[in-house]
Amino acid sequence: MNDMTGSVAVVTGAARGIGRAIALDLARAGADIGIGLRDPSSDDSLADEIRALGRRALPLAMDVTDLDASRTALDRVVRELGSLDVLVNNAGGGIGGDAIDVTEQDFDAVWALNTRSTFFLSQHAAKHMRDAGGGSIVNVASQAGLVALPGESSYCVSKAAIIHLTKCLAVEWGQFGIRVNAVAPTFIETDGTAGALADPAFRADTVERIAALHRIGKPGEVSAAVTFLASSAASLITGHTLVIDGGWTAR
């Protein structure tokens, strides 16, 4: 039931880590992929890997903080690949700092990257999906939207907003056949987390807090969940955030 043959999916932030794994998993399930990249030259052979799976791949210039360019990229997918059935809002990041020291500029930058982009790209994709009779949107939130991470207040707030936004959009857009869900991963082994996880004390504390399984996650453990939520196997699931945290938030 995870078969997505004939579908077209766009994954933002697809250059590496979780985004790259999502793009490849969706392609393995049969979807053609619009590869959202902040720098189109940073594809690092991802398009070739997707084509080797027998799927079409379209690299896209998608700095998600540039909404006009990103909307244009979504329109290009519909024009060149024929439809837009799935949008995965994966691009994101944070700027660390104690809440008492966070600047307005840093807060606004994190909000624009994580939350504003998710809202307005979902809105634009939903217009295409509504006209086509339905679709699926999967937002990549974080366990940080459910629990407090010291020194990450602006990031936590932005991801909490995505979790609630997922519910709001699901309720409004269900009438159009559009499902909206999210995943909320814990710390995952990627280039982006490598620096923090290289600190033995930080890694040990993180493993301890992942209270049930006591290990760091892998990108494929997130991408498999995204593919499930995007597919017809999750046809009666909407407004839900699937927590992929090894038990961290159950503690």
Give an overview of the whole structure.
45% of the residues lie in helices and 15% in strands. The chain has 251 residues and is an alpha/beta fold. The chain has a single domain, classed as Rossmann fold (3-Layer(aba) Sandwich). A seven-stranded parallel beta sheet has the order 3-2-1-4-5-6-7, sandwiched between helices. The longest helix has 29 residues, at 104-132. The protein starts with 7 loop residues before the first strand and ends in a 7-residue tail after the last strand.
Q: How many helices?
A: 8
| Strand-residue proportion | 5-15%
Tally of strands: 7
How would you sum up the major sheet? Answer: 7 strands, parallel
CATH architecture: 3-Layer(aba) Sandwich
Give the end-to-end Cα distance, rounded to a whole number of Å. Answer: 33 Å
CATH topology: Rossmann fold
What's the domain count? Answer: 1
Strand-and-helix sequence, N→C? EHEHEHEHEHEHHHE
Spatial order of strands in the largest sheet: 3-2-1-4-5-6-7
Q: Which consecutive residue ranges, at least 5 long each, have pLDDT under 50?
A: none
- What structural class should be given to the helix and strand makeup? alpha/beta
What is the molecular shape?
Answer: globular
Please write the CATH class name. Alpha Beta
Average residue pLDDT: 95
Taking all Cα atoms into account, the compactness measure Rg is 17 Å
Question: What is the CATH H-level superfamily?
Answer: NAD(P)-binding Rossmann-like Domain
Helical amount: 40-55%
